[in-house]
Amino acid sequence: MGAAIQQGGGRRRRRGRSRARPMSEINVTPFVDVMLVLLIIFMVAAPLMTVGVPVELPKTAASALPGDDEEPLTVTITATGAIQIQTTDTPADQLVAKLRAIAVERDSDRVFLRADGSVSYEVVMQVLGALNAGGFSNVGLVTDTGGPTLDKPEE
User: Which of 5, 92, 121, 127 has the fewest C-beta atoms under 10 angstroms from its C-beta?
Assistant: First the structure.
Protein backbone atom coordinates (compact mmCIF):
# COMPACT_ATOMS: atom_id res chain seq x y z
CA MET A 1 0.00 0.00 0.00
CA GLY A 2 1.49 3.03 -1.14
CA ALA A 3 0.90 6.49 0.07
CA ALA A 4 0.08 9.25 -2.37
CA ILE A 5 2.60 11.98 -2.33
CA GLN A 6 1.43 15.52 -2.91
CA GLN A 7 3.86 18.01 -4.13
CA GLY A 8 3.73 21.64 -3.19
CA GLY A 9 2.07 21.19 0.18
CA GLY A 10 -1.47 20.55 -1.12
CA ARG A 11 -2.12 24.12 -2.26
CA ARG A 12 -1.97 25.22 -5.77
CA ARG A 13 -1.45 28.82 -6.50
CA ARG A 14 -3.42 30.19 -9.40
CA ARG A 15 -1.52 32.84 -11.21
CA GLY A 16 -3.37 35.81 -12.67
CA ARG A 17 -6.67 34.91 -11.00
CA SER A 18 -6.04 36.59 -7.68
CA ARG A 19 -6.74 40.06 -9.17
CA ALA A 20 -10.28 41.44 -9.24
CA ARG A 21 -11.93 41.14 -12.62
CA PRO A 22 -13.34 44.35 -14.16
CA MET A 23 -17.10 44.71 -13.85
CA SER A 24 -18.75 44.51 -17.26
CA GLU A 25 -22.27 45.66 -16.23
CA ILE A 26 -23.49 49.24 -16.37
CA ASN A 27 -24.90 50.68 -13.15
CA VAL A 28 -28.13 52.42 -14.19
CA THR A 29 -29.13 53.76 -10.79
CA PRO A 30 -27.21 57.07 -11.03
CA PHE A 31 -28.59 57.59 -14.56
CA VAL A 32 -32.17 57.09 -13.34
CA ASP A 33 -31.57 59.47 -10.41
CA VAL A 34 -30.33 62.21 -12.72
CA MET A 35 -33.24 61.72 -15.12
CA LEU A 36 -35.80 61.93 -12.28
CA VAL A 37 -34.23 65.16 -11.00
CA LEU A 38 -34.34 66.65 -14.53
CA LEU A 39 -37.97 65.57 -14.92
CA ILE A 40 -38.92 67.32 -11.68
CA ILE A 41 -37.06 70.48 -12.72
CA PHE A 42 -38.86 70.65 -16.07
CA MET A 43 -42.24 69.91 -14.48
CA VAL A 44 -41.76 72.84 -12.12
CA ALA A 45 -40.31 75.21 -14.75
CA ALA A 46 -42.78 74.52 -17.60
CA PRO A 47 -45.74 76.47 -16.15
CA LEU A 48 -43.47 79.48 -15.62
CA MET A 49 -42.73 79.71 -19.37
CA THR A 50 -46.22 80.85 -20.39
CA VAL A 51 -47.03 84.40 -21.47
CA GLY A 52 -47.58 86.28 -18.24
CA VAL A 53 -49.79 89.29 -18.87
CA PRO A 54 -52.37 89.48 -16.07
CA VAL A 55 -55.84 89.38 -17.63
CA GLU A 56 -59.20 88.26 -16.21
CA LEU A 57 -60.38 86.03 -19.05
CA PRO A 58 -64.11 85.41 -19.45
CA LYS A 59 -65.28 81.87 -18.74
CA THR A 60 -66.93 79.76 -21.46
CA ALA A 61 -67.83 76.13 -22.04
CA ALA A 62 -65.64 75.90 -25.19
CA SER A 63 -62.90 73.28 -25.43
CA ALA A 64 -59.24 74.07 -26.04
CA LEU A 65 -57.79 74.39 -29.54
CA PRO A 66 -55.19 71.86 -30.75
CA GLY A 67 -51.56 72.96 -30.39
CA ASP A 68 -49.12 74.08 -33.09
CA ASP A 69 -45.41 73.50 -33.65
CA GLU A 70 -44.67 77.22 -33.81
CA GLU A 71 -45.00 79.39 -30.70
CA PRO A 72 -48.40 81.05 -30.96
CA LEU A 73 -48.63 84.80 -31.42
CA THR A 74 -50.67 86.32 -28.63
CA VAL A 75 -52.35 89.73 -28.69
CA THR A 76 -53.69 90.89 -25.35
CA ILE A 77 -56.16 93.65 -24.47
CA THR A 78 -55.80 94.56 -20.80
CA ALA A 79 -58.55 95.93 -18.53
CA THR A 80 -57.26 99.47 -19.15
CA GLY A 81 -57.54 99.01 -22.94
CA ALA A 82 -53.78 98.71 -23.54
CA ILE A 83 -52.84 96.40 -26.42
CA GLN A 84 -49.86 94.06 -26.15
CA ILE A 85 -48.27 91.78 -28.73
CA GLN A 86 -46.83 88.92 -26.67
CA THR A 87 -45.63 91.07 -23.74
CA THR A 88 -44.71 94.26 -25.65
CA ASP A 89 -46.99 97.28 -25.32
CA THR A 90 -48.15 98.48 -28.74
CA PRO A 91 -50.03 101.72 -29.45
CA ALA A 92 -53.31 101.18 -31.34
CA ASP A 93 -52.20 103.31 -34.29
CA GLN A 94 -49.07 101.15 -34.82
CA LEU A 95 -50.83 97.79 -34.36
CA VAL A 96 -51.54 97.03 -38.05
CA ALA A 97 -48.00 97.94 -39.16
CA LYS A 98 -46.41 95.73 -36.49
CA LEU A 99 -48.77 92.85 -37.29
CA ARG A 100 -47.87 93.07 -41.01
CA ALA A 101 -44.16 92.94 -40.13
CA ILE A 102 -44.73 89.91 -37.90
CA ALA A 103 -46.92 88.16 -40.52
CA VAL A 104 -44.07 88.31 -43.06
CA GLU A 105 -41.74 86.42 -40.69
CA ARG A 106 -44.20 83.74 -39.54
CA ASP A 107 -45.30 80.54 -41.28
CA SER A 108 -48.67 80.39 -39.58
CA ASP A 109 -51.46 82.95 -39.72
CA ARG A 110 -52.79 81.76 -36.35
CA VAL A 111 -53.02 84.32 -33.56
CA PHE A 112 -54.60 84.14 -30.11
CA LEU A 113 -56.56 87.12 -28.85
CA ARG A 114 -56.81 87.51 -25.09
CA ALA A 115 -59.11 90.25 -23.81
CA ASP A 116 -60.03 91.14 -20.27
CA GLY A 117 -63.71 90.46 -19.51
CA SER A 118 -64.31 94.13 -18.69
CA VAL A 119 -63.17 95.35 -22.14
CA SER A 120 -66.01 96.53 -24.37
CA TYR A 121 -67.10 94.53 -27.39
CA GLU A 122 -66.25 97.49 -29.64
CA VAL A 123 -62.58 97.47 -28.62
CA VAL A 124 -62.33 93.71 -29.17
CA MET A 125 -63.86 94.05 -32.65
CA GLN A 126 -61.47 96.89 -33.54
CA VAL A 127 -58.49 94.72 -32.59
CA LEU A 128 -59.98 91.80 -34.57
CA GLY A 129 -60.23 94.09 -37.59
CA ALA A 130 -56.60 95.16 -37.09
CA LEU A 131 -55.55 91.49 -36.91
CA ASN A 132 -57.34 90.80 -40.18
CA ALA A 133 -55.78 93.87 -41.83
CA GLY A 134 -52.38 92.78 -40.51
CA GLY A 135 -52.59 89.42 -42.31
CA PHE A 136 -53.90 87.16 -39.55
CA SER A 137 -57.17 85.52 -40.53
CA ASN A 138 -56.97 82.52 -38.17
CA VAL A 139 -57.86 84.12 -34.82
CA GLY A 140 -58.55 82.12 -31.68
CA LEU A 141 -60.29 83.85 -28.77
CA VAL A 142 -58.75 82.77 -25.46
CA THR A 143 -61.08 82.14 -22.51
CA ASP A 144 -61.02 80.25 -19.24
CA THR A 145 -62.91 76.96 -19.07
CA GLY A 146 -65.68 76.17 -16.64
CA GLY A 147 -68.02 79.01 -17.53
CA PRO A 148 -71.77 78.94 -18.05
CA THR A 149 -73.34 77.00 -20.90
CA LEU A 150 -76.34 78.08 -22.93
CA ASP A 151 -77.80 74.60 -23.22
CA LYS A 152 -79.23 73.96 -19.77
CA PRO A 153 -79.92 70.28 -19.06
CA GLU A 154 -83.55 69.44 -18.39
CA GLU A 155 -84.31 68.51 -14.81
Answer: 5
